[in-house]
Write the structure tokens for this entry.
Amino acid sequence: MLKTARKYDRFSRLYDLFEGPMEMEAFSKYRKIVLSLVEGKVLEVGVGTGKNLPYYPEDVEVTGIDFSRGMLKRAEKRRIELGLENVELLPMDVQDLGFDDNTFDTVVSTFVFCTVPDPVKGLREVYRVLKPGGRAIFLEHMKSGSKLLNIPLYMIEPFIRTLLGTSMLRETRNNIGKAGFRIEKAENLFFDIVRLIIAGKPGGKNDSEEEPVP
Ligand SMILES: C[S@@+](CC[C@H](N)C(=O)[O-])C[C@H]1O[C@@H](n2cnc3c(N)ncnc32)[C@H](O)[C@@H]1O
């Protein structure tokens, strides 16, 4: 098993507590925005303890994956408590997804590509399993364009990397582009560190004529 998955297994008991203050302050608000955008057959990668589960609309079919069984166990508990029968949870690595090409209408990722060991490989897998015309919705933290804002990120980096294998300095916006996605929207939620990015896989019937966001 991967070293990072083991770190999350160990941390799974504390994850919700650790994230609690950020959740109350802002994350739950951001999650509502992300989950209001999903449709059809949905894949959530790095589902963690299932923090997004309460916000899914009832008319979607959700498959959630995570490579940490400890995190998944907590997501499964949450799924049962919420009585969600439209959600299935599976142990899987986003870098090697066990789904056919062009399977999902929407892919959701919240705070995941800061941790995936090879993020571009994982994003290429997301692109592969998304249907042409489908959308991937990312809520992610990443390196800022400002040297000043990056100072605290560089300071936290060694601690968070050791604890969880997570990096505060990933260039996730660029990585999404490298995987072949067409960026439709990139909105800053907390400076340019926490961003909502909506990315499409070209080739759908309703492809827009608009230029991608630079
Ligand atoms: C910071 S947590 C976020 C969990 C959840 N998405 C949320 O918003 O609370 C990152 C999650 O991504 C998972 N993860 C990281 N790399 C992964 C990979 N390669 N494949 C599957 N899951 C992965 C971790 O196990 C962890 O559960």
Strands lie at 41-45, 61-66, 87-91, 104-110, 130-141, 182-190, 194-200.
